[in-house]
């Protein structure tokens, strides 16, 4: 039986790839910034695999994502900042500290009593601990300061709104958000009529922000919802394309009404 590679082998492999004399030229010249696009791509590939329930390939995609973490840590080690073991230590220490209901004595081996605890109380406790950590690090206490600016727009909007809602700045139910969406749509329509591109962009952003706000009230992940719609559109448009290709007519010969009829047929087949 072939020996299974382990954590130490992965560290060794990464060090070899980055070795100044005998490593891979491409890996050697990479920086934190240059591999960020690859990291983002690997995250989305993991998400895509899970959403398609393609668990056969999930192991491979998780490996690709793990490699990104190891890569960053090796660059940091090369620069004498920290190494992978430090990353793991910090992670374990933080999670032990943030789970006092599991590790009551603040150690990895401590055991809790068999008391009942629900997810809602754990979530509140998690937020309180994170706030305490911020204060102990002398970080700015402004409510929105630590939301990463590099997040995708809709995801960051969702986090901003959720954070504001925790201190009471929110509508009591989704009806208030829906009214705001209608208001923003009216303002967008006015901007479109004015043909002012900057105003259109601003108002369209307000509409998207309000729609993202609605997802918090409805407990829907906006990125997941859009990805599902993308897949739905791709299937239906593919059906239209198949029908056009089976005919003797070019796309330009079809009216929008005819293509819409194919679209409606696709909906019945999906």
Automatic annotation (TrEMBL):
Keywords attached to this entry: Hydrolase
Pfam families, A to Z: MazG (PF03819)
Record-annotated NTP pyrophosphohydrolase MazG-like domain positions: 30-103, 177-236
EC number of this enzyme: 3.6.1.9
GO molecular function: nucleoside triphosphate diphosphatase activity
Enzyme class: hydrolase
InterPro entries xrefs: MazG-like_dom, NTP-PPase_MazG-like_C, NTP-PPase_MazG-like_N, NTP_PyrPHydrolase_MazG
PANTHER family xref list: NUCLEOSIDE TRIPHOSPHATE PYROPHOSPHOHYDROLASE
NCBIfam families (UniProt xref): mazG (TIGR00444), PRK09562.1 (NF007113)
Record's protein name: Nucleoside triphosphate pyrophosphohydrolase
GN (gene name): mazG
